Amino acid sequence: HDDKAAYKARIKTLLQQKNAVLVAHYYTDPEIQALAEETGGCVSDSLEMARFGNQHPAKTLLVAGVKFMGETAKILTPEKTVIMPTLEATCSLDLGCPAAEFSAFCDAHPDRVVVVYANTSAAVKARADWVVTSSIALDVVDYLDSQGKKILWGPDKHLGVYVQKQTGADMLLWNGACIVHDEFKAKALIELKKQYPTAAILVHPESPDSVVQLADAVGSTSQLIKASQTLPNDIFIVATDRGIFYKMQQLMPNKTFMEAPTGGNGATCRSCAHCPWMAMNGLKAIEEALLEPTGHEIFVDAQLRERALLPLDRMLNFAK
Ligand code: 13P
Ligand code: SF4
């Protein structure tokens, strides 16, 4: 514990010295989220992270999350130094959507508007017409559908199915999934709900359709946190990364939050629903990144950046 306090104190000093601000995702460990809060940084979903970094005056953005979040920050604010605790923190959706193959898929369907999830590389974003995060995917696709557009969607198939069902849009889906959310099991969730009949079920739309169908609320991390505040229930079963419990518990200390089951036997696994890449964002790595940015800094090729900025800007302007 003392060790952690010492890390935190040194990091606070370094953030000031380097004119840096900590931008953290809800899936990072509680101590990282707390540190962002204590130092005037932000803890949020991926859309808000992009917005915050874009608007904050700091010269350096220290992004605690996964690589696409750092890349998005760099694309939006190339004049800033963007560093991450580790550049190894990737995402299974990003890994499962190589730019060359995705581009060929797009080429094969030139009649479709290309909408990609933010959880992608800069190169995939550069091939897209629109970038969306889970918090505005429905609104953007609804808008495109109302314009009579057919859509090519990548990479998350579960989010794609969810958006398709909600909007009725014509969507062709890339076959990607999040290794964390893909593990939630509908059968076990039904059993758990029987034990807690008054519980509300909150589900991130990267989960399989069978799990989404059981939800009382579906949405991005920030939308799920809001649902935990606005729904009258005292108990919540939550199908998303367990990092989110820090904020839910903080905002609603008298409510009970439990993890949706990732196993097949009805028992909740207390440590399964946690993104292994988000977990790489530790205090030690944060201090290292601030002390010596080499090997922690995000660079995006200038041409790619220019192209990827278009669909990202489109998203931010749409979300206004
Ligand atoms: P949010 O945009 O809901 O924060 O989701 C990001 C993410 O990686 C979910 O797995
Ligand atoms: Fe990617 Fe899933 Fe991790 Fe989110 S939780 S960063 S979608 S692997």
Automatic annotation (TrEMBL):
Entry annotated with the keyword rRNA processing: no
Pfam families: NadA
Binding sites annotated in the UniProt record for iminosuccinate: H25, S46, Y117, A118, N119, S134, H204, P205, E206, T221
EC number: 2.5.1.72
Cofactor: [4Fe-4S] cluster
Recorded GO MF terms: transferase activity
Subcellular location: Cytoplasm
Catalysed reaction, written as an equation: iminosuccinate + dihydroxyacetone phosphate = quinolinate + phosphate + 2 H2O + H(+)
Pathway involvement of the protein, from the record: Cofactor biosynthesis; NAD(+) biosynthesis; quinolinate from iminoaspartate: step 1/1
Family named by the database record: Belongs to the quinolinate synthase family. Type 1 subfamily.
HAMAP family: NadA_type1 (MF_00567)
PANTHER family: QUINOLINATE SYNTHASE, CHLOROPLASTIC (PTHR30573:SF0), QUINOLINATE SYNTHETASE A (PTHR30573)
Protein name: Quinolinate synthase
Species per Swiss-Prot/TrEMBL record: Alishewanella maricola
